[in-house]
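Worked example

This section walks through a single chain of length 436. The input is the sequence exactly as stored; nothing has been trimmed or padded.
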Amino acid sequence: MAVESIEAQSAEAPVRVRGFLGWQIVLVAFTAQLVASGVTLSAFGNFVGPISREFGASDSLIGIGPALAVLVMGILGPLLGRLLDRGWTRRLMILGSLLTGSGLILLSHATAVWHLGLVYVGVVCTGGALFGALPSMTLVANWFVRRRGLMLGIAFAGATVASAAGPLFAQAVIESEGWRVAVRYLGLATFITALPIFAAFVISRPEDVGQLPDGDDPRAAEDEPSSEAASEPSAAIGGAKTARELARDPVLWQVAIGFGLVMTSPIVIIGLLVPFGESLGFTGASYFFLAMAPFSILGKLVIGGLADVAPLKPSIALTVLVNIVVWMILYSDPSYPVFIATGALYGIGIGGAAPLHGVMVGRCFGRANFGTAGGLGGLATIPLMVMAQILSQVLKAATGSYHASFLVQAVLLGVAGLLLALVRVPPPEGQAEGAV
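Given that input, the structure is written out below as tokens.
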């Protein structure tokens, strides 16, 4: 049975329901990641050629769309995060799905390149930001504390599924019916899948329906400290903080920059990997990503689950090290079998980054501030990703080789590892203070 979310704070007692609804929330977050990634970024490359040919625009002009979209999402982050922490999750996700679905259908009627840019960035991707990464991550973080890493891993697996299925779907429709029909289908898919699920099942916090994170018994919590108090000292001691207070915390920027440098790898590898493989004579360079997808899901689940039961920093160090090894293997101009195997290794490394980021933000700032901290951090994370993509292309053009870009990525990851190693992370419940 669908449960209406209580979005605003109210003096009324929460409605109690039977059965822990956290599993429902994880499914909602998985769907949000699947749809947001699938209709905004994953299949973007499939549309570049057809659109550039129809409108007589260069591939490079059309290709800047994802960078602009990511910037818009980053700019929206602080406001979006604050609204999420105030319980507006359901409203935002419904509005976002409406905007994205409508924007995609509008794209199918575009008659000029500037129409495409305005609608894609201003409507489609703005809508995607309202129900995508930050809202779904905040939703899961509100419902889970002790099992947050694993549940975030499951949620982020939606984006990985989209990265494999989205391009295949888009290409099949483009080849048979054209890019406009493919865009229209993506819009309809958003309306059919995301909108009804968000309207029926999104609940901002377990307390809204008389439950507690991780399915803890509310009756026991009346006599004992909650799991959140035990596992998230900042939330228990300081409670909700203002955006200004969080912005003054150097830990927020240290975490944001550290994970921002880690996340430069996927945006750079998207732009360089296939042409690099082709420069080595590989006709199936795109199979790198096919090898990556299942191992990325595995990395999300294994590393995310590990973060719930083991010290966090060794998992972060492992993730950073694996990504450095990937770039160094690419630097060595590998053979085709090694090239494909590197895709699997890369999947494990980059797959674990997203849940680790969510776990660290949760431990450092608590449930009460998760959305705001994540949104503010995006002001540092997003520009780093965009600048890294631009730098990689500049280095490629200046040197005529991919190797300088690969070395720069390895260095950026090393800096990320150092920054994150220096963060003092509050321990999880039942773990000694020094084991973080």
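What to look for: The radius of gyration is 21 Å.
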